[in-house]
Amino acid sequence: MNKKFTFFLRLVTPVLIPLTLFSQQDSIAGKNFKFRPLPVIVRSIETDWSFGALISSTFHIKPKDTLTRTSNSQVLALYSLKKQFVSALNGTIYFPGEKYILNYQISYSDFPDKFWGIGKSTPDNNKESYSFKQYYIYLHGQKHVGNNFFIGLLYEYQRVIHVDYSPDGLFDKQNILGRKGYHISGAGLSCTYDTRNNAFAPDKGSFIQFYFNHFGRFLSSQYHYTNYVADIREFFRIYKEQVLALQVYGFFNAGEVPLRSLASFGGSNSMRGYYDGRYRDKSQVVIQGEYRIPLKGRFGAVAFANLGNVGSSLSEIGFKDLKYSAGTGLRFALDKKEKLNLRLDYGLGRGGNNGFYFQLGEAF
């Protein structure tokens, strides 16, 4: 999924303060269902103070199906002093025996963003502010075909309205597609190999996924292009419960790509330390590694490092102006059995890029 559940935390220096942390015993639980409400306060440069709530749920469709990974769902609502609003529902459902898997996200967002232009070498002092409203739907159904392989169907819809930007600025000078609002609709196919032993924080196994999504006239998409994604992850148990996690992520577009579908470099799940969208282009490649160490009780720590770049195509990404970042973070286990963690990370990137990130679940 190229629009991950990170938009409300993809700001330069957010500080998220949970007002209440519900432990495993404090979660509201039924026989086969747990959910944890988390009232939150958010402070960021873009939004000032924001207030809202996050509800996380975990469940099995069949209570005694211990071989199937735990399904999860999150609901978010957030409102800022600048009258910005974000709401979203997302999650993953593992059907009995993992014969079928459904990933989904439905969201609405209304908040400002930053734009530095297109390309790998855009200067730091060249940014412009803009704001937009966006409706977004993502559905990805997969069927198990044997030996940990899955084939899938994807659907993605995006509607961007009320784009507010400075006339005769970067948007107009670079003729950015979609700057006056648009809608896109696309469908595609996926192939996945998945041997991870946990849905939230695996300590062994592989995840290898390739997919494409075509946005064309057959689905009344305003812009016509194809998105290709390769996502390769490996997890190794190094010593006792210490884990080395590795990821190679490639995101490529061909055709007429609108603003919010360009490769957006940075954020809380990729190249931590960079503002999500600090660099934009049709394509990007990111390599990241993370070492995860349990501390005491529910607490843990991580150290991570990343390399990546953007370009108009795979051949244009290269090593020129290569970006890098590194950082560390803390973990608090909301549910030790399911390995569902709250994470607080600090990333430091090239050229003074840096930021804090607070989110539910691991980066990858």
Structural write-up:
The chain is mostly beta strands and about 375 residues long. It has one domain (about 5-360): Porin (Beta Barrel), CATH 2.40.160. The protein is about 0% helix and about 60% strand. The chain has helices spanning about 170-175, 315, and strands at about 15-20, 30, 35-45, 50-60, 70-80, 85-95, 100-115, 130-145, 150-165, 180-195, 205-215, 225-240, 240-255, 265, 280, 285-295, 300-310, 325-335, 340-350, 355-360. The strands form 2 sheets. It has an 18-stranded antiparallel beta sheet that branches. The two termini are about 10 Å apart.
Keywords:
2 helices; Porin; two-stranded antiparallel ribbon; 18-stranded antiparallel beta sheet
Count of alpha/pi helices: 2
Q: How many whole angstroms does the radius of gyration measure?
A: 20 Å
Query: Spans with pLDDT under 50 lasting ≥5 residues?
Result: 1-29
- How many strands, which pairing sense, and closed or not: the largest β-sheet? 18 strands, antiparallel
CATH superfamily grouping: membrane protein fhac: a member of the omp85/tpsb transporter family
Global mean pLDDT: 85
Bin the helical content.
under 10%
| Count of spatially separate domains | 1
Structural class comes to mainly beta
At the fold tier of CATH, the topology name is: Porin
The ordered string of helix (H) and strand (E) elements is EEEEEEEEEHEEEEEEEEHEEE
CATH class: Mainly Beta
The proportion of residues in beta strands is over 45%
> How far apart lie the N and C ends?
12 Å
Count of extended strands: 20
In the CATH classification, which architecture applies?
Beta Barrel
Cα shape = globular
